[in-house]
Amino acid sequence: MIKTSWKDAPTKSVDIAGTSFVYRQLGGGSEVPLVMFNHWGATLDNFDPRIVDGLAATRTVIAYNYRGVGASGGKAPLTVGEMADDGIAFIRALGLGTVDVLGFSLGGFVAQDLTLKAPHLVRKLILTGTGPAGGVGISKVGAVSRIPILKGLLTFRDPKYYLFFTSTANGRSAARAFLGRLKERKADRDKPIAMGAFLRQLKAIKAWGLQAPQNLGAIHQPVLVANGDQDKMVPTVNSTDLARRIPKADLVIYDDAGHGGIFQYHEAFVARALAFLAA
Q1: At 164, is the secondary structure helix, strand, or coil?
Q2: CA-to-CA separations, 256 to 128, 141, 147, 167, in angstroms, rounded
Q3: Is the Cβ–Cβ distance between 112 and 216 less than 8 Å?
Q4: What is the edge-to-edge ordering of all strands in the sheet holding 249-254?
Q5: Residue by residue, what is the 3-state secondary structure of 174-222?
Q6: Residues 9-18, buried b or exposed e (16+ Cβ, 10 A)?
Q7: What is the C-alpha separation between 157 and 9, in angstroms, rounded?
Q8: pLDDT per residue over 138-157, tens digit each?
């Protein structure tokens, strides 16, 4: 086992057809590695340290930056399909034959498409705060996010305070704790996402929301679907839809939680995810 934590994990890079992709890796052991794909606008520093460290207790965890995001080179793709293609190339570039995949929000879109395109690479799949192609409200993520982002600017708060959590006392407390955890890493932090890449990702999300539904019945891997019961970014009904359409899916919905339900309930989520991956 590699004795380190997410806040201290070194940033690495791998060259894929002339483009450098950055990632961080920690944990170890003989279990199948877990590759993580993150949300719209996220860099490596937006992965929740408690979730990464918790999952790395029993396995290798690899967190990845999309093309054109943070310190990764190239130009951010305009489609989820291109992001999935990059993800497949990344897994192969690391010499990994089989992996488990965790996708949050946009990362969940990527994880679905990746699994459908390269099913032989994926053993188990965890989809959190996400939804299917053509899902309810996904094409409107930009419109739904506009006011919370503006509110964040006006109140000098990270917009995730408003976007990922409910406005209840529990939600606000969880938001403060989560945003505090994102600041724990002091050295070797990733570059912030450029506005151009941020907007290109939004176009990819809108296109996913307008895309024709995929045949999720073709996903034969065991799948864990998790979300909060009040997700306004990717409405919670999409999680129910995923669990209904994927043959081997289990669904977990957290009470009084929004888009970032797995961050609010990180201890329960890590325990459930580890049990799912170990089964």
Answers
A1: coil
A2: 16, 21, 21, 9
A3: yes
A4: 11-16, 19-26, 61-64, 34-37, 99-104, 122-128, 223-228, 249-254
A5: HHHHHHHHCCCCCCCCCCCCCHHHHHHHHHHHHHHHHCCCCCHHHCCCC
A6: bebeebebee
A7: 26
A8: 999 999 999 988 999 889 99
Q: Which residues contact 144 (CB under 8 A, 6 or more apart)?
A: 137, 232, 233
Which tens digit of pLDDT belongs to each residue from 230-244? 999 999 999 999 999
The dihedral through the CA atoms of 112, 233, 189, 5 has a sign that is negative
Q: Is the dihedral of CA 34, 35, 41, 42 positive or negative?
A: positive
Phi then psi for residue 224, to 5 deg, are: -110, 125
DSSP type of residue 27: B
Cβ atoms of 165 and 256 within 8 Å: the answer is: no
109 and 44 Cβ atoms separated by less than 8 Å: no
